[in-house]
Write a structure and sequence with these properties.
about 0% strand
């Protein structure tokens, strides 16, 4: 590709595509430079370093994921919203493994606070859970339960780790049903420990 027209956004988009092809952990500035037919040094006019590039991919992928989730849950509440949320999350994770891996990388809290996509992620996720009557600190605990379940299941499924003959779709549906039951009958109670202000993200 021609050197002209390189931008940070264009590099991040290309890196996201590369991540889906070769794995997020294998994305490098050298690989991206080869993709565009330029020298590594040419990229430093647009991204500071590999960490900067990967952070941009994470923010891009996070925006894509929440856009898909938002479209899925629009007009829904309660179990319907939970099922739609879960399905959109899983579909993105399985269709875009490299991008999805990027969404799991730690990001500086200041960048999270400044990211409209990540703030929207918090708003939509917490909104789905508030429909179950949850408030802090239970909201954060429930968010962590959802994230652990969804991420764990998708990560295992993507590597073919489920070896039993039971259909993975059936198991997924049952897992989401179980989450709905857990959220509906959430054990309320203050832990007695001071609760920090909730941060964007989940």
């Amino acid at each position: 590709m021609a050197r002209a027209g390189l931008t940070a956004d264009r590099l991040a988009a290309a890196a996201a595509e590369l991540a889906d092809e070769v794995g997020f952990e294998n994305v490098s500035l050298s690989a991206l430079a080869r993709h565009f037919g330029v020298k590594d040094a040419s990229l430093y006019s647009h991204v500071r370093n590999l960490q900067d590039l990967r952070t941009r991919v994470a923010l891009l992928a996070g925006g894509e994921l929440i856009d898909r989730i938002a479209a899925a849950v629009a007009g829904r509440a309660g179990k319907d919203a939970l099922v739609a949320f879960a399905a959109a999350y899983r579909a993105y994770a399985l269709e875009h493994p490299g991008r999805y891996a990027a969404t799991q990388m730690p990001i500086d809290q200041e960048l999270i606070a400044d990211s409209p996509a990540l703030r929207r992620t918090a708003e939509i996720t917490y909104g789905v859970l508030r429909a179950y009557g949850l408030e802090e600190p239970d909201l954060t605990d429930a968010v962590r339960l959802l994230r652990s379940t969804f991420h764990g299941y998708c990560s295992l499924e993507s590597t073919g780790a489920f070896g039993a003959p039971r259909d993975v779709e059936e198991s997924w549906d049952r897992a989401v049903d179980a989450l709905h039951v857990a959220l509906t009958h959430w054990p309320r109670g203050e832990t007695g420990r001071p609760q920090p202000q909730a941060q964007p993200g989940w």
